[in-house]
Amino acid sequence: MQTVTLNNGVKMPIIGFGVYQIPDAEECENVVYEALMAGYRLIDTASGYLNEEAVGRAIKRSGVPREELFITTKLWVQDASYESAKVSFAKSLKKLQLDYLDLYLIHQPFGDYYGAWRAMEDLYREGKIKAIGVSNFMPDRLMDLIIHNEIVPAVNQIETHPFYHQIESAAFMKEQGVQHQSWSPFAEGLNNLFGNEVLASIAERHNKSVAQVVLRWLIQRGIVVIPKSVRKERIIENINIFDFELRPEDMEQILTLDTRESLFPSYLDPNTAKRMGNWKFDL
Questions:
Q1: What is the pLDDT of residues 132-150, one digit of tens each?
Q2: What residue numbers does the annotated binding site cover?
Q3: Which catalytic residues are annotated (predicted)?
Q4: Is 0.90 surpassed by the pTM of this model?
Q5: 113 is catalytic
């Protein structure tokens, strides 16, 4: 498995399996198990996905040695404070049936994420987390967090797909030593991604699927990606992207698809902050 090296020397698989919007416990356990059997070693979940227990059962069922795995989960807004972050971390670890996490992320840039970050720094120093990072942090908030704290986030997981390349954010993160990770690499199928003529023509040229082209495009940019599927054949297909390489002209063609705009609620919109802050889960 190809890896990237984080700013603290930890190696992270460049492709993993995401479990967003798989709340059904049995289905989630089964697809994570299938992903592990297919060769995935990075599994990305979150307390707010309400499926950490199912992920934990799949990990145990798989029999894959713990040292081969890279497990990520995330802290939700309602627990974004110093004390609550430590409690939430302990709950996540118990649900996952793990002794440590490979990566722990602040899920949203809202609430007392400064207090949460200091708690995560403590947990990192105690060896309970191999790396800490953030998700959905725009460059201004990421820089603010960096200059006022001791540990630079190892990862920032943000919306990145063929219609939103995040070129400026990617360059900024590279300058700061923060690994870029993509969520929603397929844009949830919006803008008819799987029927896009540009992507389809590239896929035909390489005898690959549109999904494989998108994932290959991301990893060639050095971006860690976590595709999700509940279909075994797609799970297998999505990891089989290391036997071909996109040409410079392919990359240039995909560049023409960039709208430079998010397809989802903006993190610069106060209504997004209000909505995220009001989402409460029984965690």
A1: 999 999 999 999 999 999 9
A2: 107
A3: 49
A4: yes
A5: no
